Amino acid sequence: MKILAPICTAIRVMIPHVTNHDDADITELEAFRVQMNREDEKRGVKLTMLALHDQGVRAEEIPDFNASLDGDNLAC
Which own/partner pairs from 40-43 qualify as long-range (CB within 8 Å, at least 24 positions apart)? Predict the structure, then answer.
């Protein structure tokens, strides 16, 4: 554990951490999710927002999303 702590600290300081928050109107998406859950209630299946989000955003479609830095250059 004594070896790991300095490494974790260095990683936390050296690697940029980014948080981004966007607003979106998901009224229609929520209505769709509720409708699907009503239809699939008998089968015991539940559709979550996370599942819908994962279908809508994929790392392959946004190459910079899963990129890393190589010095000052972006390495996709």
Answer: none
Give this prediction's pTM: 0.48
- Please state, in angstroms and as integers, the Cα–Cα distance from residue 67 to each residue in 56, 59, 63, 70, following that order: 19, 10, 7, 10
Whether the Cβ atoms of residue 59 and residue 65 lie closer than 8 Å to each other = yes
User: To which residue do tokens 């600290």 refer?
Assistant: 9
Burial of 47 (0-12, 13-18, 19+ CB in 10 A): middle
User: Token digits for 42?
Assistant: 């008998």
Give residue 35's pLDDT band: very low, low, confident or very high (50, 70, 90).
Answer: very high
Amino acid at 30: E
Bridge partners of 74, per DSSP, are 69
